[in-house]
């Protein structure tokens, strides 16, 4: 009698546990994409932060503020990496 109950109930519990586990967790966020506030070059070695959101992942569309191309600010005076529209 014990084995009959285990044979019918155990697969049911395993199935319910698998379904609950599948819906209990969300996929990990994609950490490869990061958004930055773009910076435009003012002079040779100076940059100014803008309020335009950009990403460092190449989407094919250059991030601009009006006609100025935006770059990623690394330090207070350095912005060598071009940014893209998210």
Report how far apart the termini are: 62 Å
Order of helices and strands: HEEEEE
Q: In percent, how helical is the residue content?
A: 25-40%
Structural Rg:
26 Å
List how many beta strands DSSP finds. Answer: 5
Low-pLDDT regions: none
Main sheet specs = 5 strands, antiparallel
Number of helices: 1
Beta-strand content: 25-35%
C-alpha geometry: rod-shaped
Polypeptide structure, described:
With 86 residues, the chain is α+β, with helices and mostly antiparallel strands. The chain has a domain at 35-82. The chain contains one helix and five strands; from the N terminus they run H-E-E-E-E-E. Strands 1, 2, 3, 4 and 5 form a five-stranded antiparallel sheet that branches. A hairpin with an 8-residue loop joins strand 4 (68-72) and strand 5. The longest helix is centred in the N-terminal third of the chain and has 23 residues, at 2-24. The chain is rod-shaped. The N and C termini lie far apart (62 Å). The mean pLDDT is 82.
What is this structure, in a nutshell?
It contains 1 helix and 5 strands; from the N terminus they run αβββββ. With 86 residues, the chain is α+β, with helices and mostly antiparallel strands. The longest helix has 23 residues, at 2-24.
């Amino acid at each position: 009698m014990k084995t009959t109950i285990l044979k019918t109930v155990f697969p049911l519990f395993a199935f319910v546990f698998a379904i609950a586990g599948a819906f209990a967790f969300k996929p990990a966020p994609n950490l490869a994409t990061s958004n930055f506030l773009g910076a435009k070059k003012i002079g040779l070695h100076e940059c100014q932060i803008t309020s335009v959101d950009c990403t460092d992942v190449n989407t094919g569309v250059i991030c601009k503020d009006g006609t100025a191309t935006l770059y990623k600010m690394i330090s207070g005076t350095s912005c060598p990496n071009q940014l893209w529209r998210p």
